[in-house]
Automatic annotation (TrEMBL):
Name of this protein: Glycerophosphodiester phosphodiesterase domain containing 5b
Cellular compartments annotated: Membrane
Residue intervals of the GP-PDE domain: 228-486
GO cellular component: plasma membrane
Organism: Kryptolebias marmoratus
Transmembrane parts of this sequence: 42-63, 90-114, 126-143, 163-181, 193-213, 499-518
Chief location bin: membrane
Entry keyword annotation includes Repressor: no
Family classification: Belongs to the glycerophosphoryl diester phosphodiesterase family.
Amino acid sequence: MVKHQPLQVYERQLCLSCITGIYGCRWKRYQRSHDDTTKWELLWSLILLFTFCLLLVWFYFWWEAHNDYNEFNWFLYERSGKWSDGTVPILATTAAGFTYITFLMVLALCHVALGQQLNLHWLHKIGVTAALLTTIVGVISVNQTWSQEWDVIPISFQATGPFLHIGALAAITALSWIVAGQVARAEKTMFQVVVVLLYLSVLLGLYLVPLYLTSPCIMDPSTLKPRPKVFGHQGAPMLAPENTLWSFQRALQLNVTGLEADVAISVDGVPFLMHDPDLRRTTDVEKVFSDRQMNKASFFNWTDLQQLNAGQWFLKDDPFWTANTLTTREKNLTANQSVCSLEQLLKLASYHNISVVFRLKKPPPQHPCYHSWINDTLEAVLQSGVPQSLVMWTPDEQRAQVRRVAPGLTQTSLVKRDPWTLQKSGISRLLLRYNQISSSEIINFTRNNISLTVYTVNEPWLYSVLWCSGVSSVSSEAPHILSKVPYPVWLMSPNEYSLIWVSADLISFAVVIGIFILQKYRMSGMRSYNPEQIMLSATVRTSSRDVNVMKEKLIFSGKSSLALVSHLFISACI
């Protein structure tokens, strides 16, 4: 006689199957395990964590370095001789790698939260290794070719630090759910103590991080200095070809208060505007003087320079991805630009009554004007008729002689010195890169009546930080962007920041304590079991419950059927 009895059932666990399947290709129940993770897999988990942290820093670096993408592309041009936007492949690979590694990190945390054994698939191990090595190579390359740009990270913390702190606090607080679950499930007291102490140490460190975060934007709003003046660096090079009259006219349309240019000396002693040592990138010298295209720009005479087109390259290379925003008229004006002389720039500045600062490049020893380059430039300044007070003179060579001939020029230094030395030399202004000066130094120079112009400032967050620091003016390739920043991006008083800081810490601590208590209550009220094991049911479950009945267990009378029952049971489990 056969007796029927409700059988064992499996519950579907699609989410768990996806987590373990994607992470370690363990899609079947019998492939999963609640055993402790092996030492080898723990090592790979640490490698994954290190790769994630490194990619996070790398991703943040390139995000904040957006201010200097043009500078990076120019460095690449110096080495390759061909202009291209090298940031595009870097940003694409960084975003893809960071997304991939972050996804694996989330899956690993899910494994820990569910008590599953970590077992990263070999394909993912190859992917993690490739991401790690690629990032390390990128870091080394930047360190060798663009090392000064690493300063953007601590500088950007002045703008993002308070918000990054709150984000990190929220992430670590959320992580307490996993930590509390591990502590509640652990059987060894020593393991529980170590995990809790490690987590609390990290949490306490985050609570105290604001003690070491400083930002000039945490200040009394009533003490905010006037909005820094904006100089057009090479005019408005994002909207028109750099160092051309059209570029400077575009900058004037954006209400800049000054213009900045790079000046070289031609063979016949005419100062002209050119940033690069040669003419290949910004003119059509390859077409007009193909046999001289590799020559230095200063070895051309002014007549030859006037034959070159200095605007078509802008439409062709589109260095700032802005060419498609130009109107037909603007494109025509751009395509017909020629090399601009210093005298033309000074006459334009004189007409609009705005300041001009230029960096004068010393010609090589074999140049005909090697000994007269200062006098040639000074003569061009005087002949232009521009008021001397509008010209910021930067060369250190023969500065005393220049002061005698043109005492009205604003003496400006490109080298940071102490205020006393500058005043002794008759220098009243500094022109420095934004990473060369700190907030405390800005305050010191301002107190000693030394005005500061900081370059190159293209991003609103950097402009806001320098504004709060008290900088009097900035030089920018993007005056059209800074013109839309009438007030610092954010500004709060020290009391407001302290209130936010303390409130965030107290809320985080309360949530962490609550999560630990809840996890302990949950684990103590749950009987320890393996989610993968077969569950014995006392009643028959209806079909509306989403379960799959694997097989009925047959109970036969007689010893002869015992072997058959055992065989059926084992087959069903497998």
